[in-house]
Amino acid sequence: MCGRYSIYESMDHYLQQLSLDLVVINGYDHERINRYNVAPSTRVELIRPVDGGLSVDRVKWGWAPFWAKGKRPDSINARAETVMTGKFFKPLWPGGRALAPANGWFEWIPDSADPKRKQPYYITAANDELLYFAALAEVHPGLEPDDRDGFVIITAAADQGLVDIHDRKPLVLRPELAREWIAKETTPERAAEIVQTGCRPAADFKWYPVSKQVGNVRNQGEELIEEIPAPPLE
Length: 234
What we know:
Layout: E1 5-7, H1 11-18, E2 35-38, E3 43-50, E4 53-60, E5 77-79, E6 97-102, E7 104-110, E8 118-125, E9 131-138, E10 150-157, E11 168-170, H2 175-181, H3 188-197, E12 205-209
Parallel strand pairs: 5-10
Antiparallel strand pairs: 1-2, 1-7, 3-4, 6-9, 7-8, 8-12, 9-10, 10-11
C-alpha cells in the first residue's frame, strides 16, 4: 500500500453499514467527510472501541513507539506477517485495534520504459460498498491531541490480479469481521486469526487508472477518483 486513500461519505454511513449494537459516546461531524486524497501525517476519522461503546476520533495517520520517535518517519502501515510478534508494534497489539473506514485507496505503477514515471490507480469495492481497513491506534484522552497519538493500517500480501498493481494491500475486512475486530470481547487469538485469514480477496475489488493530480496532497476533489484512459498493464 503506497499511502493514500479516500473517505468521503458521512461518518453515519460507515457506522450504519457496520450495524453495531454499540453507542458512539462522543460527538462527530454528520456532514460528508469529502477527503479524496488522505495522506500520511494528516488527521482522519478512525473508529475505535472504548469503555461504554465506540469513539470516533480524528487521529494522525502515522505512529511510532517512543523509542523510535524522530529516528525515521512514523510508520503508516504494519505488515500482517509481523505485526503480532515484532517489537515495534508491541504497544499497539492487541489492545489498540481500530477501524479506518474508507471508500478506496491508491497505488502507483512504474512505467516499464521509465520507472521514474508512475501511473496512479484507484482500487475500490467492485460493488461500490464501503471499506473498513483493520488498524492499530494509540489515542490518549483529552481535548488537545497528544503527540503520542497515531494509527497504522495493517497490510497483507496482494493476491490474483491485484499483484499487478502492488504486492501489498490494506487488510480490508467485511462488515461482520470489522465488527468482530473492534469488539471488546474478541480475544487476542481470534484477532490474530482475523489478521491472518480475514482480508477480502482481489475478486471483491475493481481498479482503474486515475489522474496524476492525486500525487499532490493539496488536491482533494472528486475528480481524483474518476477513471481516465491509460495503456493496459503488461
